[in-house]
Amino acid sequence: MIKLLVADNHPITRKGLEVLFSASSDIKVVGSVDDGEAILEFIKKNPVDIILMETDFPKLNGLTVLRYLKNDYPDIKAIIFSAQPEEVYAINAIKAGASGYISKSVNVITINEAILKVNDGGIYLSNDLTQQLAFGNRVNKTNGTFYKKLSTRESEVLKLLTIGKKNKEISKELDINEKTVSTYKARLMRKLKVTNLVDLVNQAKLNEGL
C-alpha cells in the first residue's frame, strides 16, 4: 500500500483527494496538510512514500520543499499537482527533485496512474510535454522558452517576488543572504528586460499567461 501525503492550501482539494483514494486498494492517504512547513513537520513523524503537492504555499514554497526532500528525505517521492502551466514549471520542478507534474485539470485515472508510475521509480509528465522533450522541440515558444532560460533558483526567487515576498522574507525562506536575493532580482530584470520590481512582477505574470 502506497502511503500518500496530500499537501494543498485549498481544503476542498485536500478533501476531494482523500475521498478519491478512500476506496483504493493501492493508495492510502496518511495525512493532509496545507503548507510547505507542515509537509516537513509531518514527514519527521510519519512514514510517507509519496507527496502529492501544490507549489504555491503561504509558508515555504513547493520548489524549496523539493530541495529539502532531495537532500534530507531522498526516499520520499514528490509529485507536483498544480494549476500552473506544465510547460512553464514542470521542468524546473523535476530539476528541483520532483518525480512528476500533474495539472489540476486532469482526470481521476491520470492522478492514479501518475502515483503508481512514480512509486515504481518512473517520472510522470503529460504525453504532450514528454513528446515535445523527446523530439527536442522548444516547449511553448513564448512562455516555456523564457522559463527554460531560468535556473531553478531564479524560478524560486521570481515565484516568491510575484506573490509579494520581500527580499528579507525570500532570503529566509531560501536560506540565502539578502545580497544574493538582490543579485538574482537584477538577473531576472535583465532577462525580462525591465528596470523595476513592478514591471518585473507584471512581466512574469504575463509570461505565465495569467
From TrEMBL:
Residues 143-208 form the HTH luxR-type domain. Pfam families: GerE, Response_reg. Keywords: DNA-binding, Phosphoprotein. GO terms for molecular function: DNA binding. InterPro entries: CheY-like_superfamily, NreC/VraR/RcsB-like_REC, Sig_transdc_resp-reg_C-effctor, Sig_transdc_resp-reg_receiver, Tscrpt_reg_LuxR_C, WalR-like. GO terms for biological process: phosphorelay signal transduction system; regulation of DNA-templated transcription. Coiled coil: none annotated. The keyword Repressor does not apply. Residues 3-119 form the Response regulatory domain. This is DNA-binding response regulator, NarL/FixJ family, contains REC and HTH domains. It comes from Flaviramulus basaltis.
